[in-house]
Amino acid sequence: MTRAPRHRARFAATLAVAVTLTSACVSSDAGEAGSGKTQKAERGRYTFGLVGAQPDGGSPVEGGTLHIADYGEARSLSPAVTYATGASGGSALAAVYDVLMRYDTAAKKYEPQLAKSLHSSDDLKTWTLQLRDGVKFSDGTPLDADAVTASIAWYRKNKGADTALLAPNLAKAEATDDTTVVFTLRNPWATFPAMLAQAPGMIVAPAAYAEKTFKPIGAGPFVLAEYAPQEEMILKANKNYFKGKPHLDALRFTWPQSDRAKLEALDDGTADVTYMRSPDVVDDAVKAGHPGELTLTGLGTMVTINTRQGRPGADLRVRKALALALDPELETERAYEGKGLPGKEIFPPESRLHSEVKPLGVDLDRAKKLLAEAKKDGYNGTITYMDGTDPVSRAKSVVTKAMLERVGFTVKLDMVSSIADRVAKTYVEHDFDISRGAASISESDPYHRLQSILNSTSYGNPGGYANPRMDALLVRLQAADSDADTQKTLDRIQALFNEDVPLVNLGAGAGFTAWGKNVHGVVPTDEYMTLFGEAWISK
Fold first, then answer.
1. Are 266 and 274 a contacting pair, CB within 8 Å?
2. How far is CA 144 from CA 114, 136, 138, 150, 172, in A?
């Protein structure tokens, strides 16, 4: 295995916050974490997709403000600054800009949203985007092909998070007439539509970035009215939205600190929509019968291993000893009272992408033997584990330390309260041995996040893992245009994942976008974001 080069690009921190930390199955809930209660995980209790009983609301009602108790605050409405996911403020960005494409979570395919159509060449290297006639930004200027190409060029120039995928793959984006954009790729890319359903597909008006200070001007159903950081964001209806004036007068975003607080707000009616990820809270919300979209993600809680030279994880024997010692079931019992989806496979049994290739299991005797071999060659057995200071993180730290020390590791804890500090230590300074995070790989586009965390040249690869064989498999996954090809490649990735142990997965994630029974017209889309352009509240 070869070493990955060191990366210090500015946007690595942005990517890290969204992908590895804010997307983790970590919340400041865990009122009972570490309480001594244990319960084995119950599998098969969830049906993913739309859940809960949604009463027929009749004809849409005009007016009202929809209160969203969101997971993470979009400190900036610039798609080049805020990584657009449902866990990091992406739904607010989608309300301002809309998206060229959206992911139909029921049909499991990408559909046009702001765009009229998107078609690929047979070799998947040329994609032609057709725009709708007459769509305008909220400042009255046209959303035409020139605006699309200029917005994507601006996004790349400003190092938006998905530049890591676009830069090596997008050779050219050309406006061939007022309503047509042709994307020419360097490599076949079967899931390229995902890029246009995420931040690069949030087209900003030329006036938004014409001056030094960015202005959030888009063609979405809402426009910015007020923003008080850490308090609230108010978006008011865009009367000139291409689908017509929204039913709602406004959206109000707030950011309760815990998932439990979000659920309580939904229960008492002070919130209309919320997004939750903490396993115990999600479980309670689903059991309560709240309507919403339950989303499954792979690599939902993982231990990142620093594989760089000079770190314990540079030794494959140490990495395998870590993997064989860590028990997902035990952690779920202790930290979440069994309310989770524990497992070491990249995609869990509930996933359509689940591999028949078995992951590394738990084998304490083999872990002890591998660690003893590494110690014989000079390793002292000490390893530092980094995590946050919230109750869940502390509970998991105690369990992780115990699981590793039972096979002979000496574990030092590095509890870092600031997410920004953890991001810097992980992605910029590379100052960690092992740390907690998540990749949150979507069912719609597995290539996106796997490329980010496993490719040798990716900015989002925190552990520095590098293997040309894995890089080649990721290229093959990128070009896979059928379920059979995708699964075959994912099987090979799982096998190499077992062989190299670039990280240790301890479970899948279940995110829940839930809304009140009087809320209608909410449209879930890619990266667990939500579209509110056709939402309304019944009386």
1. yes
2. 11, 8, 14, 10, 17
Give backbone dihedrals phi and psi of 110, rounded to 5 degrees, phi first: -85, 135
Convert the pLDDT of each residue in 199-246 to its tens digit: 999 999 999 999 999 999 999 999 999 999 989 999 999 999 999 999
Identity (one letter) of the amino acid at 420? A
Predicted structure pTM score: 0.88
Kindly report, residue by residue over 59-77, the tens digit of the pLDDT: 999 999 999 999 988 889 9
DSSP state of 18: I
**What distance in Å separates the CA atoms of residue 120 and residue 127, rounded to the nearest whole number?**
4
Please give the Cα distance from 360 to 357 (Å, whole number).
10
Tokens of 341: 């989806």
CA dihedral of 351, 84, 515, 108, whole degrees rounded to 10: -40
Which residue type, as a one-letter code, is found at position 160? G
- DSSP letters, 338-374, are T-SEE-SSSS-TTSTT--SSPPP---HHHHHHHHHHH
Phi-psi category of 292—alpha, beta or left, where left has phi over 0 and alpha has psi -120 to 50?
A: left
Give the integer Cα–Cα distance in Å for 292 and 286. Answer: 9
Largest CA distance in the chain: 73
| Rg over CA atoms, the chain | 23
Sequence-ordered strand ranges (E) for 113-221: 115-120, 126-131, 170-177, 180-185
Q: Which two tokens stand for residue 520?
A: 């209608």
Residue 331, classified by CB atoms within 10 Å of its CB into exposed (0-12), middle (13-18) or buried (19+), is: buried
| Contact assessment for residue 275 and residue 281, using Cβ atoms and an 8 Å cutoff | no
Cβ atoms of 200 and 146 within 8 Å: the answer is no
Going 467 to 473 to 476 to 480, the CA torsion angle's sign is negative
- Pair of tokens at residue 478: 């990128």
